[in-house]
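hey
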């Protein structure tokens, strides 16, 4: 067996979730993990997954300890499938113990699958003796969770869908570094009573492909919208960026709501937050902020530091808003050295 690891080959990798300003929603080739459309995201500082993988020939099966508890069901199944891919690439058999922690809510629309599979990719690849560069790691992470391919990189990241059937032109890459636009902030609104998702986005999005009447029109609108969003970020132009991300988020939500059975990720509080932003922008006569959300109830509000006070004031009195956190674009994934004596 080529590359069979020693008795305890271990590696730890840390990665942050990302919030998509242009959403990935639809898989054109599940075997090669190829999306229908390109997407664009911001990797977030402050939220993180840290994962340690240890291959151990004595283990009878792969084990996953997620947030301190032994996992089973879907989370364990996904991790095992992913480890199978790594084992195949590294050409060895041997089970692994995976210990992972998210320092933010799991499976509630804050992209734990993105940071989770980016962290797993990094840790598993190195523990298995592979030495992928960032591009190869991103490609590997994509097979665990599509959005994970963006979390390998920091700052503003694009995942280009490509056109080739073999997927060789499908890749994620950094567009702008984390400090590209120091004024820009993401006020994350954590809403009370956000349900834990029981169906992964990768499954839900295929129901949209098959049944949502708006899916085809969305595909046609996306290239020009992505260009506008990329350009607004390049020019650090909030007045152009905020309306464009609202348009994209509303389109994504309409496609979800048009899916049969319908996909409704928001709570009444999430909807109140969206309305508060629309109303603030109307009253101010300019785009003070833009909103977006993934497949979950929590909402991300993008604004400039100078408008943060105004935005917070507009949210005052929304009962179900549990807490807010101001986040900034952050770095990509990184290896964490083992602490001495462990
Ligand atoms: P989210 O919005 O948090 O990405 P999803 O339902 O799309 O929610 O994905 C959550 C799933 O991702 C979990 O059920 C689990 O299978 C996987 N996941 C989350 N965190 C981790 C982690 N740290 N390590 C491995 N898998 C994880
Ligand atoms: C709405 O790639 O995270 O967040 O692996 O099942 O979690 P799972 O799917 P994932 O889907 C992301 C969907 C999205 C949009 C995005 O992040 O681009």
């Amino acid at each position: 067996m080529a590359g069979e690891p020693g008795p305890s080959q271990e590696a730890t990798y840390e990665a942050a979730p990302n919030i998509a300003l242009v959403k990935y929603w639809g898989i054109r080739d599940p075997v090669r993990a190829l999306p229908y459309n390109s997407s664009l995201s911001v990797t977030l500082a402050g939220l993180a997954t840290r994962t340690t993988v240890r291959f151990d020939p004595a283990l009878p099966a792969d084990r996953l300890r997620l947030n301190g508890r032994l996992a089973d069901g879907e989370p364990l199944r996904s991790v095992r499938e992913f480890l199978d891919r790594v084992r195949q690439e590294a050409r060895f058999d041997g089970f692994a113990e995976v210990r992972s922690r998210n320092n933010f809510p799991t499976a509630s629309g804050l992209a734990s699958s993105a940071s989770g599979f980016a962290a797993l990719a990094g840790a598993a690849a190195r523990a298995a003796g592979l030495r992928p560069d960032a591009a190869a790691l991103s490609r590997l992470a994509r097979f665990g969770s599509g959005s994970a391919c963006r979390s390998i990189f920091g700052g503003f990241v694009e995942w280009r869908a490509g056109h080739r059937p073999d997927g060789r032109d499908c890749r994620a890459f950094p567009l702008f570094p984390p400090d590209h636009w120091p004024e820009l902030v993401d006020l994350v609104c954590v809403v009370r009573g956000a349900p834990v998702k029981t169906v992964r986005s990768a499954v839900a999005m295929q129901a949209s492909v098959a049944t949502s009447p708006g899916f085809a029109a969305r595909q046609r609108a996306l290239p020009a919208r992505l260009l506008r969003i990329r350009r607004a970020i390049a020019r650090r132009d909030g007045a152009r960026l905020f309306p464009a991300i609202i348009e994209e988020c509303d389109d994504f939500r309409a496609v979800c709501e048009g899916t049969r059975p319908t996909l409704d990720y928001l709570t009444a509080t999430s909807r109140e937050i969206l309305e508060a932003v629309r109303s603030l922008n109307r009253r101010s006569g300019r785009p003070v902020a833009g909103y977006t959300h993934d497949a979950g109830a929590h909402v991300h509000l993008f604004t400039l530091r100078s408008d943060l006070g105004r935005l917070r004031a507009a949210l005052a009195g929304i009962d179900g808003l549990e807490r807010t956190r101001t986040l900034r674009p952050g770095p990509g994934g990184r290896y964490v050295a083992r602490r001495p004596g462990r």
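The mean pLDDT is 95. The two ends are 29 Å apart (CA to CA).
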